[in-house]
Amino acid sequence: MTEDFITFIGRFHPLWVHLPIGFLIISVLLKGYVVLGKKPFLAEAVNFTLLLGTISALIAALLGFLLSRSGGYESNLLDIHLVAGWTTVLISAIAFWLNKNEHRFSKKLNYSVLGSLMLVLSVTGHFGGSLTHGEDYLTAYAPFGGKQEENTVRLLASMDQAEVFTDVIQPILRSNCQSCHRPGKSKGELNMTSYEGLLKGGENGPVINSLVGGKSELIRRITLPEDHDDFMPSEGKKPLSEEEIEWLTWWIEKGNADPKISIMKADEDLIAWAKPTLNILGAEKILAVSIDTVYLRTLEKIGFRIRVLSQETGALDVVLPSEVANGKASELLKDLLPIKEHIYWLSLAETGIQDPDLSMIAQFSNLRRLRIENNSISDAGISDLKNLSHLEVLNLNGTKISASGLGSIAEIKSLKSLYLWNTEIKPQDEWVKKISSEKVNVVFGT
Amino acid sequence: MSHHHETPMRSSNRDLQEIEKNMDRRRFLTKTSLGIGSLALGSLIGMEKIFAGNPQTPPMVSESANGLEGLPHFMPKAKRVIYLFQAGGPSQLDLYDYKPKLVDLHGQELPDSVRDGQRLTGMSADQSSFPMASSAFKFKQYGQSRAWVSELMPHTAEIVDELCFIKSMQTSQINHDPAITFFQTGHQLPGRPSMGAWLSYGLGSDNKNLPAFIVLVSKDAVQDQPLYARLWGNGFLPSQYQGIQFRSGKDPVLYLGNPENYDGQDRREMLDYLKSLNEAQFDTYGDPEISARIAQYEMAFRMQTSVPEVTDMSQEPDWVYEMYGEESRDPGTYAANCLLARKLIEKDVKFVQLYHQGWDHHGNLPNGIKNQCQKTDQATSALIKDLKQRGLLEDTLVVWGGEFGRTVYSQGTLSADNYGRDHHPRSFTKWMCGAGVKPGFSYGETDDFGYNVVKDPVHVHDLQATILHLFGIDHEKLTYKHQGRRFRLTDVEGHVVKSILT
User: Fold this and answer.
1) Pairing relationship of beta strands A279-280 and A155-156 according to DSSP bridges
2) Distance (Å, whole) CA A168 – CA A244
3) Confidence of residue A102 (pLDDT cuts 50, 70, 90)
4) What totals of helices (H) and strands (E) does chain A contain, helices first?
5) Which residues of A touch B75 (CB under 8 A)?
6) pLDDT score of A285
7) Do A397 and B389 touch (CB under 8 A)?
8) DSSP secondary-structure letter at B167?
9) Which of A1, A301, B220, B440 has the smallest number of Cβ neighbours within 10 A?
10) Residues of chain B whose C-beta is under 8 A from some C-beta in A?
């Protein structure tokens, strides 16, 4: 029987669960009617509905178990829902048996079991709902919780349109601070829902001292030891993550708390962290989806070593071992074309690739690290690489590159390391001096 | 299955047997609810399918070379690591942590305010006096980074601009075995998986023909403190993730060659039969260790060709041996192991762990440490230079250091030119180098006595978290459920030391 069929059956869970909920609730209501309304002739109906409830709960739990196998659920919530679900089955069975044998036990015991049945049923239902609709579904629009109209991340046409305050800082404040510091609640007389509110500060003065220097009150509070009285978020709420703190610090200290400053001004690491949280039109995320894992397995069977570098972007590290290449590297390279956008690191060391092969490698536009050492390739082929606009590390050890061939390499602005050991190029060559800088590290043998 | 395999503990009910096969007792107890659910469904749907999707099910042989789904958590900087473990506790005060003020304080009592009531080991606690000993060796600054290195490490001094010193290492353990166990497994008590096992469990193997985690122990070291295989053990992880120790000698793995008069032609066939027998056994008992065993037989088969190839030193030119030092011609020495480490890294082995014992200088430190440095300094430095010129430092991380440091006060009597130093967990120096670590950088500071950390302490768990981070792993998310608890390398602690990352 296939995984698909299991999923198919599992998906009846959301439909089926309403049966035990209904049966079990009506059984308790009936019980109340029997006892309070003095209708003993209906007692048997309580037993009957409890039995129906138990059986249908068991089926619901089994269906739920199958559904959980298909994955994609938040594991903490899933665990709670799963345990609660089975507890419901167990308690309803106990309740049925107790109710049937009520004469042998105290009535109080029976009532309290029925009470706990209702309780655990609610818990199960609530977490089940949280799983499908999201954790804050129930309370998001509650009058006491404060409406969160801005909960959606705005859609951006491109990465450089993103603003630090609106697209990064606001979401951080929203998820960590605004439940207390907002109009209507304003703890410490601080309202963090607007830029103006932040600037105004709270009862102890400003929270952002971007011009005064030193630590802002906001940064100080979130970086204190967790048990400190002034620590924020208070009352044991989840502390901010390191990246969130870094972003806030960057925005206040380096970005002068400018409400319009572009995200592109920030450090690479920070941008990389924020990127997946942004909602960018046609963003790189699509890349991850389009990775054909079956094809990757095929490539591995051929002998390529493939490693996923980042699930987020679908970046791959691809190695062609020299013993696999065995004189047919050019042929094998063609197999990489379907995944060329995904290849970030590529090693073709000692594979016998030739100059013409480099024109194919030049199509791997996302390359960050390229190892083509110990191949008989020369300036003609290497000049093809100049359009690799993300290339950071280039290993040309043991190739036939000449000093003048470095001219094309110099055009790769992203380059950080260049390896020229065992080439005819000498450290004192003019091109080497031109290319090596603070940013580009040129390495020869020792 | 067949009735021959039934034991009195097993149920006679077929469906129950299936359950028993697929779960060991403990897993059954923790997952009782699932067990009941599956039991009822046993007749409806094939059992294997239900458990195939269960993340707790140990990976099958074919998948064992790949890492866990979802890993790495983010873009890694490092692809491989060489961990040069200096077992015994090298004296930071005589190697890298230069304390000029000690020259004037030489021979004076260690102030109580500095020791601050610290409990010492039984070896020096009873001393009536704790005279501070300044290093007998001269220090100089090297490279553009102006790093202080003592005259004991002239070769390492040449590569300081590649290194990232952490001078503020701290551990909670004061004796060798718990301290090394702590460093390698994240806990001082035996039983946890080692760092290499975690990495190979999480990330899988890049070269299926060689183990992902290989251990090399120097044969030319003073073996005063023992090393136990649990330091590279798999703990509660499936056993194919344990480190494979290569023997220190000419034949790194025994019995890889075929016996005389056997051409090995039908070895594959023989292993296929053995595999089918083992698989039948696995079908019956469902013990995950059986699939681990199958994986190990397959690995051993592939190692018959890959190991002789990678350990063949005949192709290395003379200048390589001159670079690593003449001892590198003698297999099993530290120098030869450094060279072998480079060759293994070239083959994309993920974790190469070297151990060099003999740094435990309770007495006669000046002579002892000189000897240690002579055996390790040149090869260590050569390894870094060699990795650098080959471009391998880009994605290879090298870690150097011991399980703790040594005291500023002399253990035993302090004479004009001799002293000893006891174990010191409160401060010591390690260095890292390569993939994603700032070169020519020094992090953390100790006080003028080299006794307490005064700036940026780095605890063992922080270092482990940082190493995992370099591999693209969030140390809080790489976990394994065992005995009802999710365990991780860094236990419940550890912060990534971001300041040392590029």
Assistant:
1) parallel
2) 9
3) confident
4) 19, 9
5) 272, 309-310, 312-313, 315
6) 44
7) yes
8) E
9) A301
10) 33-34, 36-38, 40-41, 45-46, 49-50, 52-54, 70, 72-76, 79, 203, 206-207, 348, 385-386, 388-391, 394-395, 472, 495-496, 498
Mean pLDDT of A129-150: 68
- Could you tell me which chain B residue has the CA closest to the CA of A64? B37
Cβ–Cβ gap A65/B395 under 8 Å: no
Q: Measured between CB atoms, does A369 come within 8 Å of chain B?
A: yes
Contact (Cβ atoms closer than 8 angstroms) between residue B197 and residue B235: yes
Q: How far apart are CA B264 and CA B258, in angstroms?
A: 6
Helix orientation angle between A43-69 and B32-41, rounded to the nearest 10 degrees: 90
Give the residue from A47, A41, A29 showing the smallest Cα distance to A95.
A47
pTM above 0.90, yes or no: no
Question: If residue A19 lies in a helix (H) or strand (E), which one and from where to where?
Answer: helix A18-36
What's the ipTM? Answer: 0.82
Query: And the tokens for A227?
Result: 């048990």
List Cβ<8 Å contacts ≥24 apart for A279-286. A279/A153, A279/A154, A279/A155, A279/A156, A280/A155, A280/A156, A280/A157, A280/A158, A280/A159, A280/A162, A281/A155, A281/A156, A281/A157, A281/A158, A283/A159, A284/A312, A284/A313, A285/A312, A285/A313
Q: Which helix (H) or strand (E) holds B408?
A: strand B405-410
- B37/A65 Cβ within 8 A: yes
At residue B209, the 3 state secondary structure works out as coil
| Residue-wise pLDDT tens digits, A155-169 | 777 777 888 888 888
Could you give the CA distance from residue A75 to residue A396 in angstroms, rounded to a whole number? Answer: 47
How confident is the model at residue B24, as a pLDDT?
Answer: 56
- Listed by number, the residues of chain A in 55-74 with a beta carbon closer than 8 Å to a beta carbon of chain B are 58, 61-62, 65-66, 69-71
Establish, for the pair of chains A and B, how many residue pairs have beta carbons separated by less than 8 Å.
92
Q: How many helices (H) and strands (E) does chain B have?
A: 16, 17
Instruction: Give the integer Cα–Cα distance in Å for B231 and B197.
Output: 10
Scan for tokens 């002034």, then name that residue.
A230
Nearest to B393 by CA among B356, B430, B439: B439
**What is the Cα–Cα distance from B433 to B399, expressed in whole angstroms?**
7
Cα separation, A74 vs B254, whole angstroms: 48
Q: Identify the DSSP state of A440.
A: -
- Point out the residue among B40, B73, B206 whose CB comes nearest to the CB of A305: B206
Q: Quote the CA–CA distance of A416 and A22 in Å, as a whole number.
A: 66
Please report residues of B whose CB lies closer than 8 A to that of A446: 385-386, 388-389
Look at the alpha carbons of A389, A394, A399, A404 in this order and tell me if their dihedral is positive or negative.
Answer: positive
Rounded to whole angstroms, the Cα distance separating A343 from A367 reads: 6
Higher pLDDT, B477 or B48: B477
Q: How far is CA B73 from CA A313, A367, A368, B145, B175, in A?
A: 11, 20, 19, 33, 35
Residue B60 is given by DSSP the state P
**Chain B interface, best mutation among A69, A73, A273, A442, by max B CB count within 10 A:** A69
Task: Name the residue facing B45 among A6, A61, A71 (closest C-beta).
Answer: A6
Give the β-pairing of B485-487 and B480-482. antiparallel
Coil, strand, or helix at residue A211? coil
CA-based nearest distance A333→chain B, Å = 19
Question: Given CA atoms A77, A80, A86, A88 in this order, what sign does their dihedral have?
Answer: negative
